[in-house]
Amino acid sequence: MFLDRTDVRVAEEVCADGRALLKTIAAKSGVSTQTVSSRLKRLERELGLKYVPEIDLPAVGMRSEHFVRMKLSGEPDGGKLKAALAMPNVQLACRTAGDFDLLLWVIARDARAFAREAEPELRDALGDWAEDWVAHALVARTAGFIPVSAHAVELFSLPKSRKKTLAALSENSRMAVTALADELGVTEPTAEYHLKKAKPFIRRYTAYFSGKGEFAHVARFLQLKGRKTDARDAERALASLFFASDPRLFNRLAFAASCSGGMDAAFLETYSPLEDSAGSESREALTGVKAVGKQAVGNVVKILKGAIPVRKVRLAEECPYLISPPEAGEQK
User: Fold this and answer.
1) Which end of the chain is more exposed for a tag (fewer CB within 10 A), N or C?
2) 9-61 pLDDT, tens per residue?
3) How far, in whole angstroms, is CA 272 from its chain's centroid?
């Protein structure tokens, strides 16, 4: 699908604020409200533009996030795999090719709940086919986000009315107040009230593209070694690749976090399917950087559950760091 400058500008505005008024987007994009409306409908139809809230997971009681990656010894039983993916804790599941075969993003109330509830249930379902199993706790998100489904709200430590509101917004956060009122079975003033009460649990309203076949994704884990200054070299190498002001239509980086479990950083990267080797640029950028001890890389073959967000945002302005959070008082 070909996108012109107006498409890209409109996409950037709606990714920055998914509930922005058409007239606001039009003013910032330098076009009419009718043009904004038609472009959004086109992006929704042809690239699967979806509007979602970026949920503040700690605020809703979900303080633990893990990437679980598995090297499989065979094809998992279909019923077992379906049961594992049906868990509300599992919000993203990808079949991959490379150093691992299955990648899951799992959320839980805390580390204990993950270790005592979510992980054992996953092992019961998939352990027979897991040749290698590594769970990486995400210590800090450093860039991007991963959408949370409406199904996940049952895990949130919130009143029922807040859960119902967040579930509705997770399906379409751009819905009009009248539509939200219908969804909640309340009057419009009450829907406005619930929308206001949901605000503390939402980092921002955003949007992403889910067009099948339009994008290729890579999951990458890095192990760091050496001095902090060496890690900064790795960070600069990745930043120059991910944040370069070139004419790419979408952010190269979809998600980044510092993590534990034998690796120090995790990334979800986005590429055009026309590129010869997805992820080769970032691998080459890190070649020779002495801070990188080991990499584990998986090319996403199929997304089984959830979505890897493809967006257009000013990522460089939103990302103070990529590899690991700076220490208190440290200036970059």
Assistant:
1) C
2) 999 999 999 999 999 999 999 999 999 999 999 999 988 999 999 999 999 99
3) 18
Domains and CATH numbers, the chain: 1-47 (1.10.10.10), 214-318 (3.30.70.920)
For the chain, how big is the Rg over CA atoms in Å? 20
Question: How far from chain centre, in Å, is Cα 300?
Answer: 14
- Confirm if 91 and 305 have CB atoms less than 8 A apart: yes
**Which long-range contacts (C-beta less than 8 Å, at least 24 apart) are formed by 238-243?**
238/267, 238/282, 238/285, 238/286, 238/322, 238/323, 239/316, 239/319, 239/322, 240/285, 241/281, 241/282, 241/285, 242/143, 242/269, 242/282, 242/315, 242/322, 243/315, 243/316, 243/319
d(CA 99, CA 261): 16
What CA–CA distance (Å, rounded) separates 28 from 39? 14
Compute the distance between CA of residue 308 and CA of residue 103 in angstroms, rounded to an integer. Answer: 12
Give the closest residue to 249 by CA, choosing from 43, 45, 96, 92.
43
The DSSP bridge partners found for residue 96 are: 300
